[in-house]
Write a structure and sequence with these properties.
The structure holds two protein chains of two kinds. By secondary structure, chain A is mostly beta strands. Chain A has four helices and 31 strands. In chain A, a hairpin with a 5-residue loop joins strand 1 and strand 2. In chain B, strand 2, helix 3 and strand 3 form a beta-alpha-beta unit. Classes of the chains: A mainly beta, B alpha/beta. At the A-B interface, helix 1, strand 18, strand 30 and strand 31 of A face helix 6, helix 7 and strand 7 of B.
């Protein structure tokens, strides 16, 4: 009987008899934490506006016990005392105007900026919510999340852990490491995004005009789609797949082995790799781009479009400068922007 | 007799090894979740079929939940398949149709063949979209679930999708707690390991999806099957379509709260599974089709899980027979080692799997209930064996298969 005592006790006491915690209302929105912190910032708004009017600063304590500082107007000099001590700023910061931060400082709590936020070099941020643009300087770190209602730009060699999002655009310079990024336009490297949208629109027009048969063609071994070939419908291969330069697939593509896509290939649907995928330069992919082991995408390739945003996901992702993703980037292990070869 | 016994021991050992392989894979292997990160896409039009036969206790919950999911409202149509209900199911569905114009298109079925597969087959006349999701009426989908279940269909090899079922009424009594443990083992370990290892995750017919073109290619729903989900899994497999499992696409369900209801449920599952075994078993293992070698082997083992109950009982009887005949199959220290090894490793396999599942779920105290699973297994082994016998003797007795709906217990509609 003794071995059964814990079981009998559990039946009687029901210490662990709740259903597993299935989150019913969480939809996976990349802005989830930003929305949560915006509610905190909204509660601070009356005091913050008062500070903006008077140009003063104020301090206080949030209901969860965190201290906060409200800045009516401030520049780098406000944070100088912290840089002299242990280089760590330990309270929540809410700025009612543009905010310029000093270099080398660690912000252990969230930052809210009603205006543009410019970080200093080699700074570390727990989380940032910017109502306008966020611009992080070289070798900065974001530990949990950052969201910009305007543009988000990160200079070279930034480590962007957790979630990085923008309501307009994210630009990441080479050397930046990322995990999850979401924005209408994500650009590896800095460039003029107005110029990069037209080719995808042309592809959408192509796709709209060409009827795609349902179902798919299944190949048991390796497959090569020759350069310049046009393939109508979806294709699945259980081996490796090679698509030659300039080929056009009016459908989706799946390979259970390594996938190599040469330059200038267009795929109207999704691109799914059971192992690794190497997407060459100047390709156009209409749907989700997924690889189970890892992915490399070369310069000039566009995934999704302004009208049809999409997801690029793999455990490791390497993007050359010049890659554009409309929608989401998700690298569970590590994503990295590398210089154009 | 002794060779039969050896054969049975061999098959049981095979299943034991499979339990360990799956569990160790879940604990230490590479975990595949290839579609779960797809959060942005040009989401396709989707039809959500809600199978409902006398579901007045639960149907309002699922319809309310579906009206609150984060899938684009203009790209999803909910089709409650009201299958000859005689309670207030129709009235409740119609009230939702009125409240949410253009989002729910009810299919009220008043006659025809009984059973979920037959109802779904008839409801296909309402379906025009390439992606179809299926829920039983007692499920409560969360906000992000529909996108998660649709995402795998961006992969052109995927014909079916299965999410994870999580019991909601866990704390009701000992039975619900044991079923909670069994579900954990079945989904958290079994299904995910099969996904990881490129084997055959099983379509469960609820919290699930199917591609219309794949369904048409394989001939639609099989209304002769008692478990249309198992039947679908194998027909997709034989035609080169993958069924994938999404462990993080979780959905609450209600599990049976009384033993008679549970026995009825598991007997139906066993009969349906055995139907599929008879229909596809040999062809899957030896036939010419699109399944890979590992899919053939795992698929056959999966088909045989319910047949293992009577096989085990026969094994026990044979062991007794051998004992009373005075035959000693193993001698001395080898016999001792064999007995000890099986007692320590063999019997422990299923418990190890469930304990691992509980650990992966980050729950703590419920693992204490493991010893009581013997009770659940005992009931299952005799129920499933009874089902098997009734199936085998049906041609003689003239018994007809019929579909038994699982009774609901929820008290707040």
């Amino acid at each position: 009987m003794v071995p059964l005592l814990p079981a009998i006790a559990e039946v009687r006491l029901k210490r662990d008899a709740q259903p597993l915690d299935v989150i019913q209302q969480y939809g996976g929105d990349i802005r989830h934490f930003a929305h949560g912190f915006r509610r905190v910032a909204t509660r601070l708004q009356p005091q913050l506006q008062e500070c903006v009017r008077s140009g003063a600063t104020a301090t206080g304590t949030l209901p969860d016990g965190d201290e906060f500082v409200l800045l009516g107007s401030a520049d780098e000099s406000f944070f100088v005392p912290a840089t002299r001590k242990d280089s760590t700023w330990r309270s929540v910061v809410a700025a009612g105007a543009d905010l310029v931060l000093p270099e080398g400082l660690t912000f252990a709590k969230e930052i809210y900026a009603a205006g543009d936020l410019t970080g200093g070099e080699r700074s570390t941020f727990r989380a940032i919510l910017g109502e306008k643009d966020i611009h992080l300087q070289r070798a900065s770190k974001v530990i949990r999340w950052a969201h910009a209602a305007g543009r988000f730009r990160a200079e070279h060699d930034c480590d962007l852990f957790g979630r990085i999002s923008s309501d307009q655009e994210v630009q990441l310079q080479s050397g930046c490491v990322f995990q999850r990024v979401g924005a209408p336009v994500i650009v590896a490297g800095f460039s003029d995004t107005a110029a990069i949208q037209s080719p995808s629109q042309a592809m959408e027009a192509d796709a709209d005009a060409t009827p795609v048969p349902p179902g798919r063609t299944l190949y048991d071994g390796d497959l090569e789609i020759r350069a310049g070939e046009v393939f109508l419908g979806s294709v699945v291969t259980r081996g490796k797949l090679h698509i030659g330069a300039g080929a056009h697939v009016f459908g989706s593509v799946k390979s259970n082995g390594h996938m190599t896509i040469d330059s200038g290939v267009s795929v109207n649907g999704s691109l799914v790799g059971g192992m690794t995928a190497h997407v060459g330069s100047n390709c156009r992919i209409g749907g989700p781009v997924l690889a189970e082991r890892g992915m490399v995408i070369e310069s000039g390739t566009q995934c999704g479009s302004a009208r049809n945003p999409t997801t690029v996901a793999a455990p490791t992702i390497e993007l050359e400068e010049g890659v554009v993703v409309f929608g989401s980037l998700w690298a569970r292990n590590e994503g990295r922007v590398v210089p154009k070869a | 007799m002794i060779y039969c016994l050896f054969g049975i021991v061999l098959v049981i050992s095979l299943y034991t090894a499979r339990h360990y392989w799956f569990t160790l894979n879940r604990l230490f292997g590479f975990q595949r979740h290839p579609y779960i990160d797809t959060d942005t896409a040009n989401w396709p039009q989707v039809t959500i079929l809600v199978a409902a036969h006398n579901e007045e206790k639960v149907v309002a919950n699922i319809l309310a939940a579906l009206m609150n999911v984060n899938y684009p409202a203009d790209r999803m149509m909910v089709v409650p398949v009201n299958d000859r209900s005689t309670d207030r199911t129709r009235e409740i569905i119609d009230s939702f149709v009125e409240k949410h114009p253009g989002r729910i298109r009810p299919f009220h079925r008043t006659g025809g063949k009984g059973g979920k597969a037959a109802a779904l087959k008839d409801a296909m006349e309402m379906v025009e979209t390439e992606v179809i999701l299926i829920f039983d009426a007692d499920y409560i989908p969360g906000s992000g679930l529909i996108k998660q279940l649709v995402a795998p269909f961006f992969d052109p090899e995927v014909g079916g999708v299965m999410g994870r079922v999580v019991p909601l009424n866990v704390g009701t009594n000992l039975l619900t707690r044991l079923l909670d443990l069994e579900r954990s083992g079945g989904y958290q370990v079994d299904q995910q390991a099969r996904m990881n290892l490129h084997l055959v995750p099983q379509h469960g017919g609820t919290v699930a999806g199917v591609r219309l073109s794949a369904l048409r290619e394989i001939g639609g729903w099989n209304d002769k099957s008692l478990t249309e989900d198992t039947d679908l899994t194998y027909r997709l497999l034989l035609n080169g379509w993958q069924t994938v499992y999404q462990n993080r696409s979780e959905c609450y369900e209600e599990v049976p709260e009384t033993w008679p209801v549970r026995i009825k449920q598991i007997m139906r599952w066993a009969k349906g599974h055995n139907q599929a075994l008879a229909a596809y078993g040999l062809h899957l293992l030896f036939g010419k089709h699109r399944a890979t070698l590992r899919e053939r082997i795992d698929g056959t083992l999966l088909l045989g899980v319910y047949a293992m109950a009577p096989v085990t009982l026969i094994g026990w009887l044979l062991a007794l027979g051998v004992f009373y005949e005075g035959v000693v199959p193993l001698h001395g220290i080898i016999a001792l080692f064999a007995f000890t090894a099986y007692a320590a490793v063999g019997n422990f396999a299923a418990f190890f799997e469930i304990a691992a599942a509980v650990r992966l779920d980050y729950t703590r105290q419920r693992v204490c209930l493991l010893p009581f699973l013997v009770l659940g297994f005992a009931v299952s082994i005799f129920s499933v064996s009874t089902a098997f016998v009734s199936q085998v003797t049906a041609p003689i007795t003239g018994a007809k298969f019929h579909w038994d709906k699982t009774e609901r217990f929820r008290t707040t509609p």
